[in-house]
Design a protein that fits this description.
The protein is mainly beta. The chain contains four helices and 28 strands. The strands form eleven sheets. The protein has a four-stranded mixed sheet with strand order 3-4-5-6, with no helix packed on it. It has a three-stranded antiparallel sheet with strand order 8-9-10, with no helix packed on it. Strand 12 and strand 13 form a beta hairpin. The chain is elongated and about 195 Å long. The C terminus is likely disordered.
């Protein structure tokens, strides 16, 4: 059933109803912006269509709004896929001027999105997909799917338009080939050609190590007489304990012998050779230089040649005709010579100037680092000889002094101790000041002054005898007139005793025993001698020392 345009129906109530537009007018759809969608989302009836003025396209509603793909083609190639029959297509037949089912579509251009819910088979020879992004859900992308043998797969692959970059399969070698470089993070498998690489790009493994001098040197060692330095890699043969005596003579390289050397020579012409003694002589008995022609290099002497070969230098006047040489004035040892100025850039030696006396009327400044004076006598009129004149501190002047060559005797200044030091002994007539150390001297080395040395005469003269003592100054001897040893008998003209008198009864020789002691005392009040209480002062440890003991 067809419904004419002028009929007003709210909907098509049956599936066989068709909306047919017979004239060339337009079907005006509801139009509005994206914001004006009614509703924007939610409960709008599924299958609703409208024109989106924001997107400038027709859209339909199916739970959400979708843009209807634009399919542009010639009328004879215009088609829709029948969703109820995936093997059939709806096309517009320009001959019968109506849509009809067809099994295939020849050329199809899709300008927008195309959603295909089932399989798509393209039988055309060329298929151009101009989408900026092509997404394929299948994990495997197959090319040359119609090939039935290997030769038909040759050349299958990919091609990047304009860049002429290809990745294709080569059947003869059974390999993928690329005409451009391939940059990958990791390659799994073997590589047939790495000629464009060096070992610098290949990391060192565990077993196959790269060459290093240190590794090579550490792998070697020396044995026997081979001296090997594993640090520098030098290999030497230790010949310290070897001589040619340890090496047997071969057939060709023979050792030297006088007889061998002498027998290998011979004399010819005027050369007289003795192979026994090895002496070589030249027989000049019948030859002179007149018999030897002059060569081009070693020329014979001629006066003219000799005179022409020399010339006068600075201060020397020379005549190459007569050979006369002059210097402008007489400079013999007794001559007086005069010069305007003398400048010496190097060392001024006796070979440079020879004269009996040299007088310098002005100042003499020597700027060289070493000045040598070989005179036997050097007189300096200045009262003060200054050393280290350029020193500005005491440390810079440290070590200044005098050195006697040969003896290595030095007199130098020590800035640290603030003293003049000598490394040899010093002999002087008189030292003014204190001497800190005389440990290397004796009293015999020092003259006597106020403090006199000991002599027997001085000691004897300083003594004298007192009461009861007789002294001889000449002999230095003391005496008391009689011997008073413990065994001696002494006699006195008179003895006054105010205390006790210890009497000893001497029995024979030797010191008195304690049992021989008697003590008596004189009692003045009774005018008689009487026994006193025993009191002994005899020293038994020293039998020669005893005293008369008194007791009241």
């Amino acid at each position: 059933m067809a419904i004419n345009l002028n009929h007003q129906l709210s909907s098509l109530t049956t599936t066989d109803q068709i909306l047919q537009i017979d004239n060339s007018g337009n079907l005006i759809l509801p139009s509005g912006t994206t914001v004006q969608r009614n509703p924007a989302s939610g409960t709008s009836a599924t299958g609703s269509i409208r024109y989106n003025s924001t997107l400038c396209t027709v859209e339909y509603y199916d739970t959400t709004w979708h843009i209807i793909p634009q399919i542009v083609c010639d009328l004879e190639d215009f088609c829709f896929v029948d969703p109820n029959n995936t093997t059939k297509h709806v096309i517009y037949n320009t001959t019968s001027c109506c849509f009809e089912l067809s099994d295939q579509v020849t050329n199809l251009t899709i300008l927008n999105d195309l959603n295909v819910c089932n399989d798509v088979t393209i039988c055309g020879a060329n298929t151009d997909i101009k989408s900026s992004c092509l997404t394929i859900g299948d994990i495997n992308f197959t090319v040359a799917s119609e090939a039935t043998n290997l030769s038909q797969t040759d050349g299958a692959g990919f091609h990047v338009h304009c860049a002429n970059a290809c990745m294709h399969y080569k059947q003869s070698t059974d390999t993928w080939n690329l005409n451009k470089n391939l940059v990958v993070n990791y390659v799994c498998g073997q590589i047939s050609d790495i000629s464009n690489h060096t070992t610098d790009a290949l990391a060192e493994g565990t077993n196959n190590l790269y060459y290093l001098d240190s590794r090579a040197r550490a792998a070697l060692c020396g044995v026997c007489d081979i001296v090997y330095d594993c640090v520098n890699g030098t290999i030497c043969f230790d010949l310290d304990d070897h001589t040619t005596d340890a090496l047997a003579e071969g057939t060709n390289n023979l050792y030297y012998l006088d007889c061998r050397a002498r027998n290998s020579l011979c004399g010819v012409c005027d050369i007289i050779y003795n192979s026994v003694t090895g002496t070589i002589c030249f027989d000049l008995d019948d030859h002179t230089t007149d018999a030897l022609a002059e060569g081009s290099t070693n020329l014979y002497y001629l006066d003219c040649r000799a005179r022409q070969s020399i010339c006068g230098g600075t201060g020397v006047y020379y005549c190459n005709t007569s050979g006369e040489i002059a210097i402008g004035q007489d400079v013999c040892p007794t001559s007086n010579v005069a010069f305007a100025d003398i400048t010496v850039n190097g060392r001024l030696l006796s070979d440079d100037i020879t004269a009996s006396n040299v007088f310098i009327c002005g100042d003499l400044t020597v700027t060289g680092t070493t000045t040598t004076v070989n005179s036997t006598t050097v007189d300096i009129a200045d009262k003060n000889l200054t050393l280290a004149c350029d020193a500005t501190t005491g440390n810079q002047a440290d070590g200044a002094g005098l050195t006697v060559c040969g003896a290595n005797a030095c007199f130098y200044w020590d800035n640290t101790s603030n003293n003049w030091n000598l490394n040899r002994n010093l002999t002087v007539a008189f030292v003014c000041g204190k001497v800190t150390d005389v440990s290397n001297h004796f009293t015999c080395d020092i003259a006597e002054c106020v403090d006199l040395y000991y002599t027997d005469t001085r000691v004897r003269a300083a003594l004298c005898g007192g009461t009861g003592v007789i002294y001889c100054e000449t002999e230095g001897k003391f005496s008391i007139g009689q011997s008073v040893a413990t065994t001696d008998c002494v006699s006195f003209h008179k003895a006054a005793i105010t205390g006790c008198l210890e009497l000893h009864c001497m029995q024979g020789q030797g010191p008195p025993a304690q049992t021989d002691k008697y003590l008596v005392g004189y009692n003045a009040s009774e005018c008689l001698w009487k026994a006193m209480p025993f009191c002994c002062f005899y020293n038994v440890d020293d039998p020669l020392a005893f005293a008369i003991a008194f007791s009241n």
